[in-house]
């Protein structure tokens, strides 16, 4: 028999591999479905790729790859017989078969027992070889099987790679001297103390100076003031401000010239008022160690409808999602998205096509995992009602009170979460997250992975018209930007119970002074109309530069809808940052309406009698260290003359060499050479380098407030030059920069996801030479949900229509901040509200609409 098995496996030996370090072994979940070893058909693990497949999908993988040998894993779970000893050890047929296998159901090990079995299956004849079978199998096959059976979870490989472990502790960390100068760093609004840059900022851990970092090839970075500060003061350590999380931060040692670890980073940040790392956080489902002395018991009970007998529902669209530990922010967003027809059609309607054309590793393909998740939620396959016999058995055991909470099987989003959170410092962690931020993150992934196909996120996209007015000259400027959500302020001063709030605050202060227990908290009740009014009111523009006055001035901005989306997302701004950087939640309730009419907020554009601000750029502000040197003249830009001479020696015109070095940011002769090759055919190739002087009228968007994303932006020539030097066509480079608001990193992603098309480039040329002034002129005339054909070529795709909406879903948060607590969502389906609380799905008795955090509306038809 041994010889027979050996001969049988000989043709397949080259395809059988032993898992190496770094290989992921997916032995707990199918790549295309939520089948597991506990499913009726078990799970098949490919002995070459180590991917797992359910019974319905293993044939597809065999046909696509020709891989014939799979390990079939099956776990039999059954309840112990009545009268069995509660402390008995569950029986295992093969004790070492499923080491480190994550269980797909929540059960008490004392009430259940399981039997595991494994066997090799050879396709296409389905010949089975039971395991273990050490004596009869070739040694390589035995080693491979043993390695697969004992391999750790595939998701443990998602931890940081080994290079991060090589970062050493700084020798300055323990003995760092911090100046007691009273500096306190606010949670936002940072800028470099020397050049007012707002990106790539570093906090010096000795004196609290906030300064910019070095310039990078993609146009980001700064003017190197943090390094200059070290050279002047010898203060060695600095932390990057936008990397501070409860897990740590990015620290750099100027003296050691490398990234370092600071074991005392919490104390060092606390010195400047940043206590974010020291706070304790509430965990999921109410088990908390929060620093809030009075837990929000009523909020948790009301939002989860805890005191009511909720009826469980099952079937298509009523499938729960298991909580992986602080993953409810992901689950609630997915439940809402897959209640929208556009997402159902894109991913579930095209399921077979997506699966058939999936890459060899479907676990790393966004469309495949979205389709898998959508099918899991909408098929009803993982949300089946209990059998009648099970109901009777539960009643006999008097366990009917917990029946609804445990019989819904639900699906586990572990594979999906590992994919969409990869590389993200927050979502890849096990901490609680802001559901609004994750929604935008997921929409961005949908955008990036929908090139050349239907884009379901079109339903959320809309245009915002921002009107900025110079308070002195009274002139205006109109710009438009893309958005996916409106954020409504919460004006506490408009609360209907203001007197009650003032009385509570007085009692709280009195109790604090007298060291007594604080009074019962009072929740502010704010009308929704007040939030909407606050959204539409003018706001001051920080650091506004008026092109009419050629100087900084006071400016105000108002926002209106240039188009209305098919699905409107409304976020209530319930969270704020304390001076200690800890995000805090405002305790308030808002009477959010079921029906919403926003037509009065439709943008109107430039009005009669209004005068536009001149299209001029602000004067160039040179860094202080270069104002007094020989290159202070705007006619003499900083250019690496050595690189220029190296290029000139190759025979290129001197002026062309100067332009090449300048437009590639002095990155060296190699980058400049690539620029020359890409621009040799241009008529002004050898003409002298000309730069705008301080008063030259050039197109600019400098009057736009911070955060606006103009749609008619003109990409900087430096950025275009960098992309063209990489070999990308000029027209395609310009389009990519326009589509990404001149962000070089995102522009590169855009180029790779939008292959060059001659027809689209021709349209781009037309748009460059003949701007379409009427691109948004018809926004007021749309009466039905339409996709503007003009916008398909000259701007973002929007589904404009009437501004009348009906509420169909909302996500609620419980807890003191977005970094703690729990999320649930309510969705209106078939005329009734349903609560989705992790894997539990029930009919809602009293949907708490006034306590929601993010609301979802769908547009009403014009009839």
At the fold tier of CATH, the topology name of the domain at 5-80 and 95-158 is: Herpes Virus-1
Which stretches are poorly predicted, pLDDT < 50 over at least 5 residues? 83-97, 104-109, 157-165, 277-297, 399-406, 622-635, 692-713, 757-793
Sheet-strand content, in percent, reads 15-25%
| Overall geometric form | globular
Q: How big is the Rg?
A: 31 Å
Name the CATH class of the domain at 5-80 and 95-158. Answer: Alpha Beta
Give the total of beta strands. 30
Largest sheet: 8 strands, mixed
First and last CA, distance:
76 Å
Which class best fits the helix and strand makeup?
alpha+beta
> How many H/I helical runs?
25
Name the helicity range.
25-40%
CATH architecture of the domain at 5-80 and 95-158: 2-Layer Sandwich
Mean pLDDT: 79
CATH superfamily of the domain at 5-80 and 95-158: Zinc/RING finger domain, C3HC4 (zinc finger)
Describe the structure.
The chain has 863 residues and is of the alpha+beta class. Among the domains are: 5-80 and 95-158, Zinc/RING finger domain, C3HC4 (zinc finger) (Herpes Virus-1, 2-Layer Sandwich), CATH 3.30.40.10; 201-282, Herpes Virus-1 (2-Layer Sandwich), CATH 3.30.40.10; 313-385 and 407-458, Cathepsin B, Chain A (Alpha-Beta Complex); 462-601, Cysteine proteinases (Cathepsin B, Chain A); 641-680, Ubiquitin-associated (UBA) domain (Helicase, Ruva Protein, domain 3); 717-753, Orthogonal Bundle (Helicase, Ruva Protein, domain 3), CATH 1.10.8.10. It is built from 25 helices and 30 strands. Strands 13, 19, 23, 26, 27, 28, 29 and 30 form an 8-stranded mixed β-sheet that branches. Strands 2-1-3-4-5 form a 5-stranded antiparallel β-sheet. A 5-stranded antiparallel β-sheet has the order 7-6-8-9-10, with helices on one face. A hairpin with a 7-residue loop joins strand 26 (804-814) and strand 27 (822-829). Helix 9 crosses helix 11 (366-378), helix 19 packs across helix 20 (669-679) and helix 21 packs across helix 22. The radius of gyration is 31 Å and the shape is globular. It starts with a helix and ends with a strand. 36% of the residues are buried. Residues 83-97, 104-109, 157-165, 277-297, 399-406, 622-635, 692-713 and 757-793 have low confidence and may be disordered.
